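Q: I'm building a small set of examples for a reading group on sequence design. Run inverse folding on the following structure and report the sequence directly after it, with nothing in between.
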C-alpha cells in the first residue's frame, strides 16, 4: 500500500487505538464548546417540550424560559462566589507551598494518580468548590514536575471531584437536614428533617463513594497513555497577569509609599471583616444549631481566604484572577436556568420523573429515582435546581409507597455524581484554571461515568 505523503497527512490524527483513545478521539471531534453545547441542549429541550410536555405550547415555553433564565441569577452568583473564594484560598502562599510539597511526591503517572484521587476527593467531600480548585491547581503543580499526560491528569482530578454530591456540601442532603430550608421537601411533606446520618453518612452512600475513588484510581493508572502519546503540560506563564496584579498606588513619583498603598497593604481592613464574619457565625450558631448552607459556606471561605491572604489588596488580586476562570460560567448559568425553566414550566421534567415513578415499587423506587435523575442532570446540571424539579415528584411517591425517603433522595444526588462526568458544566472551571481544552478531558471521564454508574446503582440496590 502506498503511503500518503501529502502535506495534509502530517496533520491527520492517527487512528485511535483502544476504548479510551477512541473516546478521546470522538469527544475532541464531536463535542462543541460547553456554551455552544448548552445552546444545543436548549433547542433539544424546547422541541421535546413542544412535542410531548403536558403544557408544551409556545407562550408557556417562552415565559418559562425567560423566568428560568433570570430566576437563576442569584443562585448563579452564589455558585461563582463559592468558586472564587475557594480559588483565593487555594492561591494563598501557604496553601501553594502545601500543594507544591504534595506535588513533589508524584514522580510517576501512577504516583500522580495515587496522590490526586484521595486529596481531591477529600477536598470535594468537604466542599465541592474547594475540590474543584484544589484539583485544578494540584494538577498544574504535578504536571510541572512529572512527564504525564495533562488531560489524563485533569480528568482524574475531575473524576475524584465527582463524589462531591455525597459529601458535606451536598445541597440535597444539607437541605433535607436543615429545618425551614426552602428546598427541604421532606419536612414540608412529613414535618420531619432527614439527618445527615441517614444520607451522606449512611452505608449505602459512603461505601460506593469510597469505592468510586479506589476503583477509579486503579483504572486511571491503567489508562495513562503510552509515553509516545503523552501530551504534556505547557506552562507559558502569563506576565500580563502579574502586571495586572501590580499595585498601581505602590509608590508616588518621589518613590515614597502612598496613603493608598499603605491602606491596601494594611491588615486592619482584613481584621475588620474577620471580626464581623466570625462574630456573626458565633452569634448565629450560639442562638441556633450549627448549620452550613450556601451563604455560610461562602462566608467561611471568604474569612479563611482573607486570613490566608492577609491584606485586602492581596485578596482582591486573587479574586480578580479567579474571575477570569469563572467567567465562562456567567454565560452558562442563565442558559441552563432557561432549560430548567422550560422543563419545569411545561411539565417536561415532571413527565420524565413520573414515567419512572409509575412503574416503581417500595424496593425499586430509589433505583428509578436514580435513573430518572441521570437524564435530568444532563439537562439541569445543578443539584439544587435539579432537586427543585425532581424532588416534588419522587418524594410523594416515596411516602405513598412507604419506600425509603433518604435512599430515594440520595438516589437523585448520587446520579448527579455520575452524570457530571458526561455533562461538562462543572468541568468548565477546572479546565479553565488548569488551562486545557475540555474535549480531551471528557474522553477520559466518560469511563468514570460508566464505572460509577454501576457502583452507585449496585449500592442503592444492595447496601443496607
Amino acid at each position: 500500500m502506498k503511503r500518503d505523503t501529502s502535506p495534509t497527512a502530517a496533520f491527520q490524527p492517527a487512528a485511535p487505538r483502544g476504548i479510551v483513545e477512541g473516546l478521546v478521539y470522538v469527544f475532541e471531534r464531536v463535542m462543541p464548546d460547553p456554551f455552544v453545547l448548552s445552546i444545543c441542549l436548549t433547542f433539544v429541550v424546547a422541541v421535546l417540550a413542544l412535542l410531548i410536555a403536558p403544557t408544551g405550547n409556545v407562550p408557556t415555553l417562552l415565559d418559562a424560559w425567560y423566568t428560568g433564565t433570570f430566576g437563576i441569577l442569584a443562585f448563579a452568583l452564589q455558585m461563582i462566589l463559592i468558586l472564587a473564594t475557594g480559588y483565593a484560598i487555594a492561591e494563598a502562599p501557604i496553601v501553594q507551598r502545601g500543594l507544591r510539597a504534595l506535588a513533589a511526591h508524584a514522580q510517576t503517572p501512577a504516583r500522580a494518580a495515587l496522590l490526586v484521587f484521595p486529596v481531591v476527593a477529600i477536598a470535594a467531600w468537604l466542599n465541592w468548590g474547594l475540590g474543584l480548585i484544589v484539583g485544578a491547581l494540584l494538577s498544574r503543580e504535578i504536571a510541572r514536575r512529572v512527564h504525564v499526560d495533562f488531560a489524563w491528569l485533569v480528568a482524574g482530578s475531575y473524576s475524584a471531584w465527582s463524589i462531591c454530591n455525597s459529601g458535606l456540601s451536598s445541597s440535597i442532603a444539607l437541605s433535607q437536614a436543615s429545618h425551614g430550608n426552602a428546598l427541604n421537601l421532606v419536612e414540608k411533606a412529613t414535618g420531619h428533617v432527614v439527618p445527615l446520618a441517614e444520607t451522606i453518612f449512611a452505608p449505602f452512600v459512603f461505601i460506593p463513594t469510597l469505592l468510586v475513588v479506589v476503583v477509579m484510581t486503579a483504572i486511571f493508572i491503567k489508562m495513562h497513555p503510552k509515553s509516545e502519546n503523552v501530551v504534556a503540560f505547557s506552562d507559558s506563564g502569563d506576565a500580563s497577569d502579574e502586571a495586572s496584579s501590580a499595585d498601581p498606588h505602590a509608590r508616588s513619583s518621589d518613590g515614597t509609599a502612598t496613603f493608598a498603598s499603605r491602606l491596601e497593604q494594611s491588615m486592619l481592613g482584613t481584621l475588620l471583616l474577620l471580626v464581623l464574619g466570625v462574630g456573626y457565625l458565633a452569634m448565629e450558631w450560639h442562638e441556633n444549631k450549627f448549620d452550613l448552607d450556601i451563604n455560610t459556606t461562602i462566608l467561611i471561605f471568604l474569612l479563611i481566604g482573607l486570613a490566608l491572604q492577609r491584606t485586602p489588596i492581596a485578596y482582591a488580586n486573587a479574586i480578580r484572577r479567579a474571575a477570569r476562570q469563572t467567567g465562562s460560567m456567567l454565560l452558562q448559568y442563565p442558559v441552563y436556568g432557561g432549560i430548567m425553566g422550560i422543563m419545569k414550566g411545561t411539565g417536561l421534567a415532571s413527565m420524565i420523573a413520573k414515567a419512572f415513578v409509575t412503574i416503581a415499587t417500595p424496593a425499586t423506587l430509589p433505583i428509578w429515582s436514580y435513573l430518572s435523575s441521570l437524564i435530568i442532570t444532563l439537562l439541569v446540571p445543578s443539584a439544587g435546581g435539579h432537586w427543585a424539579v425532581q424532588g416534588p415528584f419522587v418524594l410523594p411517591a416515596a411516602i405513598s409507597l412507604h419506600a425509603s425517603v433518604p435512599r430515594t433522595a440520595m438516589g437523585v444526588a448520587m446520579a448527579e455524581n455520575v452524570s457530571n462526568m458526561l455533562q461538562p458544566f462543572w468541568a468548565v472551571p477546572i479546565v479553565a484554571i488548569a488551562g486545557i481544552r475540555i474535549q480531551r478531558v471528557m474522553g477520559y471521564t466518560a469511563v468514570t461515568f460508566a464505572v460509577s454508574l454501576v457502583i452507585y446503582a449496585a449500592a442503592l440496590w444492595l447496601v443496607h
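Residues 1-16, 237-246 have pLDDT under 50 and may be disordered.
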